[in-house]
Amino acid sequence: MKKIAVLGATGSIGRQTLEVVDLLRDEIEVYALSAHSNVELLLEQVKTYQPQVLALSDPAGLPKLKTALSNWSGRILSGKKGLVEMVTDSEVDVVVSAAVGVAGLLPTHAALKAGKQVALANKETLVAGGHLIMDEVRRHDQTLLPVDSEHSAVFQALLGQDLLGLDKIILTASGGPFRQASLEQMEAALPQDALAHPTWAMGGKITIDSATMMNKGLEVIEAHWLFGLDYDRIEVLLHPQSVVHSLIELIDGSVLAQLGPADMRLPIQFALTYPRRKKNPFSRLDLAAVGELNFCRPDYSRFPCLKLAYEAGKIGGSMPVAMNAANEEAVRFFLQERIGFMDIPRIVEMVMGEHDKNGVAANPSLESIVFVDGWARSVAEEGLKKV
Ligand code: NAD
Ligand code: MG
């Protein structure tokens, strides 16, 4: 039995991970779960999965959790340290990293450092600390298992390939709810418009990132670290049906893709059963019912976040840290209706400009990432007055 710890168990990926575990109960045991503030759902998960360790990253909910579990024999941890302690517990074999935002970096890094197998959904971890994460992966001779559907597709297409034969990676993007919207419509968009994703049901932050296409930008940086390719060998294609999850092009011109229904349980399951496959009852792709598959190039003028992410990735060092933090703050401001939708890229661009002036750090340490992240958030807050 493999014992898993799920970071962000109450989120969209966390809940789907537990659904997959339901089908793998003969091989996987739920050992530890973390949540940020959703104590109710965490309590339900405790009843169903009987984990031995819990971590609540926002300690505000701790009294409620402890009261409800006063007769429970497991361990309850809290705060950022609690997440690290949970994933580095000597009993844990596999960590599913599914918290949202850069908050996932410290525990994910700690898990890899402790030699754990990691299934990674939390892309912000690679955006902010890709060099540190990949150092640990190499040091422990691990395979970092991608959960993000595009990266799982590339990972699957690459199986059995000689990396010397790889020319480029093509990440597909649905284009989100504003794929065909005008710039005027996007300037006026409200949170409920941006949250209406046409093909995927996901957490709030990534849904807004999909609408700005920052999600694809974060994924380009994620792919750079996971597969070790320069940015000019990572392309993005719009593909509204979300059936072709990504492609690789080989040096002889052959193109390989992974296709499937838009169901995150597939890449989650493959990350948990890798390198094996296991039959499941999930719905199957019916290509005849889909009928058409369309592809076109993204439009940077309506989706400047994608361009900003490429720029941040190419600059490297601490620039993606600043970009990611600015984006996390701008998405929060937008959801609070304090800024317009197109102010998200404006704030990101402004913070990146300030960071460029102040000097970008090469190969930032964890401490310096935490510092730049906090600095960028305060600059983004100031930016509220300017947009
Ligand atoms: P979500 O908002 O549904 O869930 C987030 C989880 O993280 C929750 O369990 C929450 O309690 C926890 N969390 C929130 N703030 C936290 C903090 N400060 N510290 C620790 N934990 C915290 O998000 P999601 O859609 O499940 O996405 C999780 C991650 O997976 C993101 O990085 C996202 O980009 C990535 N991802 C999601 C999908 C998807 O389909 N949802 C697909 C690919 C990648
Ligand atoms: Mg994705």
Radius of gyration: 20 Å
Instruction: Give the % helix.
Output: 40-55%
Ions, cofactors and other bound molecules: nicotinamide-adenine-dinucleotide, magnesium ion
Q: Average pLDDT value?
A: 98
Would you list the SSEs in sequence order as H and E? EHEHEHEHEHEHEHEHHHHEEEHHHHHH
Would you give an account of this structure?
The protein is α/β, with parallel strands linked by helices. The chain is built from 17 helices and 11 strands. It has a 7-stranded parallel sheet, sandwiched between helices. The protein has a 4-stranded mixed sheet with strand order 9-8-10-11, with helices on one face. Helix 4 packs parallel to helix 5. The radius of gyration is 20 Å and the shape is globular. The N and C termini lie far apart (53 Å). The structure holds nicotinamide-adenine-dinucleotide and magnesium ion (MG). Nicotinamide-adenine-dinucleotide (NAD) binds next to helix 1, helix 6 and helix 10. Magnesium ion binds next to helix 7.
Short description:
This protein has helices at residues 12-23, 39-49, 62-68, 79-88, 105-113, 123-139, 149-158, 183-187, 191-194, 204-212, 214-227, 265-273, 287-290, 304-315, 319-335, 343-358, 366-383, and strands spanning 2-7, 28-35, 53-56, 75-78, 94-97, 117-120, 145-146, 166-173, 234-238, 244-250, 255-259.
Descriptive key words:
alpha/beta, 387 residues, 17 helices, 15% strand, binds magnesium ion, 7-stranded parallel beta sheet, 4-stranded mixed beta sheet, globular, binds nicotinamide-adenine-dinucleotide
